[in-house]
Amino acid sequence: MHSFIRTLAARYDHGHDIGDHAHGWGQLIYASSGAIHVTASSQAWLIPSARAVWLPPGTPHRLRMRGCTSLRTLYIPPPPCAGLAPAPFGLIVSPLLRELILELVRIGHVGTADPLHRAVGETLLVMLARAERLPLCVRLPADRRALRVAETLLAHPGSCDTLQSITAACGATLRTMQRTFLAETGMPLSEWRQLARLMLAASLLLDGTSVTQAALEVGYAGVSAFIHAFRAKLGQTPTEFRLAATALTR
Fold first, then answer.
1. 235/200 Cα distance (integer angstroms)
2. 145 with 221, same domain?
């Protein structure tokens, strides 16, 4: 039987790392619980249960679990991928899209022979083509030492260590890393770190964490400074962001 969509359901512990790899088919990565750091095409996303990442066929990527994570993956063969985005992107998972993902995973192996199964798969492709893009991701530097700094900041966004101590631990001076991040990511290192923190904060807020607790977990000493930074970067306060995201996923 010709495969239309293949699926994978797996559960991983916090910190589990699935190293760099690629698939010949397109891939939709979704966490029904927990969250996943996805790195692909020199970009990184943190996706909680209301979000997903689309990867076109052949895209090298890496996954790292944050918290105990239930991974749900759909694999789509190249021909149907022609109507989807040719580059990776993060997306909002609406209630309908979530149910389609879970139903396809329940089916397990979606072939062309069963009209109902194929209809579910085709509906998912339409929803995926129209899905709203996520505004939060960070671009990764290509320089080896700068990439090590970036991965450290992503792994420990709430760390109070200074940028100077972090860059020194990665074998570079702060001044060199400042130049490198600006050249390779388009933003200063301090701004990049702030965006990484806000990316985690957005994930925490969507999972129900309070604004105060989210601020503390991502390294802000005060809630007012966190709210100011969040509004400056996303154009909304943390509460407004959560309410808007909740409305989209109802």
1. 17
2. yes
Tally of structural domains, the chain: 2
- Nearest to 38, CA basis, from 7, 9, 69, 8: 69
Q: How far apart are CA 81 and CA 66, in angstroms?
A: 29
Cβ 142 vs Cβ 136: under 8 Å: no
56-112 pLDDT, tens digit per residue, is 999 999 998 887 889 999 999 999 898 899 999 998 888 899 999 999 998 887 776
Angle, CA 45 vertex, CA 41 and CA 46 arms, to 5°: 155
Contact 119, 100 (CB under 8 A): no
10, 121: one domain: yes
Q: Tally the residues of the chain.
A: 250
- Cα–Cα separations (whole angstroms), residue 97 to 27, 120, 188: 15, 10, 36
Q: What CATH number corresponds to the domain at position 70?
A: 2.60.120.280
Q: Tell me how many degrees the CA angle 151-157-163 measures, rounded to the nearest 5.
A: 75
- For residue 99, CA distances in Å to 11, 72, 93, 187 come to 19, 12, 10, 38
Alpha-carbon distance of 209 to 217, in angstroms, equals 10
For residue 42, the enclosing domain spans: 3-130
Residue 5 CA, distance from chain mean position: 22
